[in-house]
């Protein structure tokens, strides 16, 4: 019966001599029982002495209590689980080969903690390692001066690569990048892939400048083109660095600081490496606070419009004004769109803004009319989504009618990039506006795509020549040539031109020379509040 057991079975007497071994034990030990019977186990298997097995066998022999132990037994290359039982004349051991189970468990552990694609640690393992490293660095025994640095790497445009060449190429790039990361001399002691195109590296005993130098080596290995599925692709990245400071910081803090720095690098346009500092955090906190304040802004009536006059170059007459948004923030004072517009346009209030803007413009026109001044036309800026939102033309007509204002007094400014996202829809909205009598302007012309193929099809009344060209005037012959080109182009398409950002008389002269129709800029007037603009009109 014992011979037919699937477990190994051996009996050992009080002098540690084998007294019995079953068939399975022979197989496991790769030894015939006749070579072992009667011999001392510690002499046959000297590697066992002082092992975990040794301990439980001794314990069971001494105390009579059963024991259990699992370990890797190197001479046989096998994981054994052994259980020991006491009997009157020594001990009995039941043991089995658990190598398969063990390797499976180890594999599972590896898979749970590693990224299948690159073999680097995954996010979970990263947090574990980071927590450990932070605790270690914070312990009193750690040398001060040198510290722990976390590099947060975000690859640029991996999505585009995937879209253009397929995921197989993207995967190959990620694998290739991971390999190169580990091959950088004096590599990071820990590397993980924590998101689709996000990697974390940990550097120990480093300094700010050493960490930054390391970040640049990472950029260098990325810049060398990768061969993936027969294609040659090179990549770039943005890298945020956070160093563990003296103050107690958690692993999460460190990671979020590096993340913040990475975002700052990404949005800096041209500075791919950024080290976190408190100022950066204040900046980000500022934005978060502003986002929260936005919720109150409409209800608390904190938005207002300023108006910047537009003048015809032929006779210096007023042709209209552009309405520019301002936020009278209760603590921060008057804010221009640079401080908040992107937050507002990605908030749920984007639609509400368009509605508010239309009403506010009409209210001002009515108020000026009561004062006896007539403004020829007011231009409003609309974002892509505001322009393409449902029923814009109907809303405009409805509101204009409610205030008894001719639609011809309104002009809608849109930018090129807001048109190209859905050029068909944009074209039909612009056509509907034109049909309704509302005029339209193409803002920042020359700064965006400027594709002639769609310009020809767009029902636009006025091209607004971007500030950048006006600024370059006088110094650069090319800018002057470009402006002449734009004016000629507009004329042949039946459009008017207005130049923005005119600050100097010399720019105005050149624009006049180039045949530009009108101008807007600090030279004529800065944007004015409603009362000041009314006064401006009265004086004109
Ligand atoms: P924009 O449409 O290009 O507006 C012209 C900007 O140039 C205004 O900045 C104006 O104050 C500034 N400016 C005018 N003359 C000069 C000059 O001579 N020199 C210089 N350097 N700058 C001049 P502002 O008011 O800060 O507006 C910034 C941008 O915010 C606008 O650029 C527009 O795209 C956006 N924006 C403003 N109001 C609204 C709005 O009500 N709705 C939407 N969707 N966007 C708005
Ligand atoms: Ca504008
Ligand atoms: Ca503009």
From TrEMBL:
SUPFAM superfamilies linked to this entry: EAL domain-like, Nucleotide cyclase, PYP-like sensor domain (PAS domain)
Domain GGDEF positions: 146-278
Domain EAL positions: 287-540
Coiled coil regions in record: none
Record-linked InterPro entries: Biofilm_reg_signaling (IPR052155), EAL_dom (IPR001633), EAL_sf (IPR035919), GGDEF_dom (IPR000160), Nucleotide_cyclase (IPR029787), PAS (IPR000014), PAS-like_dom_sf (IPR035965), PAS_4 (IPR013656)
Top-rank taxon, per record: Bacteria
PANTHER family reported for this sequence: BIOFILM ARCHITECTURE MAINTENANCE PROTEIN MBAA, DIGUANYLATE CYCLASE DGCP
NCBIfam families in alphabetical order: GGDEF
Name recorded for this polypeptide: Signaling protein
Species: Cupriavidus numazuensis
